């Protein structure tokens, strides 16, 4: 049995959140939450909320046990970019690109 969850338009670049995703891929879901709790990266907060949401969906909608689930796939894709401009010296402007990302998660049940 698989449980899918997605979060879109996170205000963090995909490259930064991939570092967090690589750490928890393949882990038990509860173990992944514990690991994320002690990670200093800002992206760990977003991934924690995503895993908690997927676990809640698994319990409520599919009547699965939390201890039987593990992170089978997790990946981050680039989202839309926002282009902003800041005034620069001598009448010029400095472009600012604000990146976003989409994170997808699939939890699977252990084979018995």
Question: What characteristic shape results from the CA principal axes?
Answer: elongated
- CATH architecture group name: Alpha-Beta Complex
The largest pleated sheet is described as: 3 strands, antiparallel
Instruction: State the total count of DSSP E strands.
Output: 5
Multimer state? single chain
Order of helices and strands: EHHHEEEE
User: Order of strands in the sheet with the most strands?
Assistant: 1-5-2
Distance between the termini: 12 Å
**Which ranges are low-confidence, i.e. pLDDT below 50, for 5 or more consecutive residues?**
none
CATH names the topology as: Ribosomal Protein L22, Chain A
Number of domains: 1
What is the CATH H-level superfamily? Answer: Ribosomal protein L22/L17
Helix count equals: 3
CATH class category label: Alpha Beta
The overall pLDDT average reads: 96
What radius of gyration results from the CA coordinates?
17 Å
| Category by helix and strand content | alpha+beta
Instruction: Quote the beta fraction.
Output: 35-45%
Percentage of helical residues?
25-40%
